[in-house]
Amino acid sequence: MRGLRIGLLATGVIAVSTTASLAQDAAAGEKVFNKCKACHQVGESAKNAVGPVLNGVVDRQAGTYPGFSYSDANKGSGITWTEATLKEYLKDPRAKVLGTKMAFAGLTKDEDIDNVIAFLKQFGPDGKKL
Predict the structure, then answer these.
(1) pLDDT, tens only, 67-124
(2) Sequence spans of domains, the chain
(3) What is the DSSP code (8-state) at residue 123?
C-alpha cells in the first residue's frame, strides 16, 4: 500500500511539472516577438508593414487583414489561425503555406512559439489588450 501511495505521488508530481512547463508566458512571448517586429506590429497604433498587423490574429482567417497585400498562397490557404495552425506556421512558415511571402525561417523552440502566441492572444482586433 505504501508503495502505491509513493507511485501515485510521483505520478502527480510529474503531471504537475509537465503541465507547468506547457504554460504559456505572454511576457516571455513579448521578448520573442522582438524577432517579428521588423515586419509585424501589434497594438492600437499598429500599421501594416512588410507583414500584416497581428492584432486579433488568433482565430482570424489567413490573408484577411485589411489593406495588406497577401500572397495568393496565403489568401487561398483556407487556414484559420488557431493556436495549432499558428504553432505549425511559426515553426516553418514555408512548409505550412507553400508560396508564402514570409521570408522568416521560423522559430525553433516550441516554448518560444507557445509564448509568442500567448503574447499575440492579448490583442483584440482593435489592438486593445483583452
Answers:
(1) 999 999 999 999 999 999 999 999 999 999 999 999 999 999 999 999 999 999 999 9
(2) 25-121
(3) B
What topology does CATH give the domain 25-121? Cytochrome Bc1 Complex; Chain D, domain 2 (1.10.760)
- Quote the Cα angle for 35-24-52, to 5°: 40
SS3 sequence of 23-65: CCCHHHHHHHHCCCCCCCCCCCCCCCCCCCCCCCCCCCECCCC
Inter-residue contact 107 to 88 (CB < 8 Å): no
> Residues 29-59: pLDDT tens digits?
999 999 999 999 999 999 999 999 999 999 9
Residue 37 in grid coordinates: 517586429
